[in-house]
Amino acid sequence: SACLRLLWPWSVEVLRQRSAPMLRLLLLAGVAAGVAGFSAVVPSKTKWGGDFLDEKALLEQNAFAIGPDQLIELAKKWALDAKLQRHDPATLAEDFQFNFRYITLSKDRYLDAVKNFDLPGAFPDAEGRLYGFFVDPLETDRVWFIGRFKGTHTAKGGLPFEPTGKLVELGPQMNSLRFNEKGQVKEFTGGDIVDRNVGD
After folding, report:
1. Is the domain of 115 the same as that of 24?
2. How far apart are CA 194 and CA 55, in angstroms?
3. CATH number of the domain that 141 lies in?
């Protein structure tokens, strides 16, 4: 690499001038040798140990009763139903927990709470804008995804204050759903904005 650093500026300058063809050829050969020597120092496939996980291998080793593709579809359907206030108790495990920042609710308390929280009513044009669904390679019963809620507060919708008419656009929020082997949700986590410089 030291050879390359020395050769490169000089060789470029010589090539710009009208030097003899043989000299230009020799210079190019020297630069090529320097590049080859540098490439030999840095392996094409660096081994990083445990810093970067082999997700595919881990998903196969820690296989869950429900495959990744089907689990992601279950997560998408449940998230959409929740947004539309379609809360079917049968989709929740008996030991279900709603774990957001500062609050944890059991199945019964969660279902009771969402009855009085009409988000679609308060934000008729609401968009969850969910994306980035993937199965955790270390917890293969868990699906992670990002939401960037956007909607205009034009109605009361069961909220304790009057409509503001304001457009609300939240920053990216990381969420997860954990499932049991029956395909029921046993945990719903979220509530944390991962970049507070984005959104309201």
Report:
1. no
2. 22
3. 3.10.450.50
Residues 78 and 19 in one domain: no
* C-alpha span between 58 and 66 (Å, rounded): 15
One-letter identity of residue 37: G
Residue-wise pLDDT for 19-77, tens only, equals: 556 555 555 555 555 545 544 554 556 666 788 999 999 999 999 999 999 999 999 99
pLDDT-derived band at 109 (thresholds 50, 70, 90) equals very high
* The pLDDT of residue 94 is above 70: yes
Q: pTM of this prediction? A: 0.74
Q: Do 113 and 25 reside in the same domain of the chain? A: no
In-domain check, residue 49: no
Give residue 27's domain range: 2-41
Report the range of poorest mean pLDDT among 11-25, 136-150, 162-176: 11-25
